[in-house]
Amino acid sequence: MNIDMSDRGAVERRLWDEIERHQVGMLGLTGAAAHHLQPMTAFVEQEREQIWFFTRADTDLARQVGDGRAAMFVFQQKETQACIFGELTAHHDPARIAKYWNAVIAAWHPQGKDDPRLIMLRLECTDAEVWVSQAGPMKFAWEIAKANATKHEPDLIGKANLHFH
Description:
Blueprint: H1 8-22, E1 24-29, E2 38-41, E3 43-45, E4 50-56, H2 60-65, E5 69-76, E6 80-91, H3 94-100, H4 103-108, E7 118-133, H5 137-150, E8 157-163
Antiparallel strand pairs: 1-2, 1-5, 3-4, 4-7, 5-6, 6-7, 7-8
C-alpha cells in the first residue's frame, strides 16, 4: 500500500494499523536511569493516542515507572518502522485487563487475569518518527542497482514525524 508521507493522517493510520496487526515491539524508559528495552505486546487505543501493555507490579520496569516516566516504544516490521515517545504510567485497570486478555497474554501470566500483581502500563504517546518502505522486490532491485551505479542513496523509504495531542 503506497502512502503519501506528507499526509500526517495517512501516516498515523498506517502506524496504528501496523501496531494493531503485529502488536510486538520493544518498550523501555528513557533518560539517565533507563535500562534495556524489552519485548512487549502492544494494545492500541488509536482515538486516545495510547498504547497499553500487560505486566506485573513486581517487575523492574513497573517499579521504575512509579508515578510516570518518559518512555519509548520501538516498532519494526518489514515495511514500517517507528520510534514512539511518551509518558509511561502504571494502572490497575480491571476493565482493560478483561478487554485485552487473550491466550497469548494468559501464557505469560499463569496466575490469571485476577492476579493482584497484574497491571497495565499506558504509554500516552507524544511524538513518533515513522519510516515506511514502499518498495516491492522489483523497485528494491532497481534502486539498489541505480544507487551503486550513481553513488547516491536508494530512494526506498519515506520518513515522517508525528506529534500527538
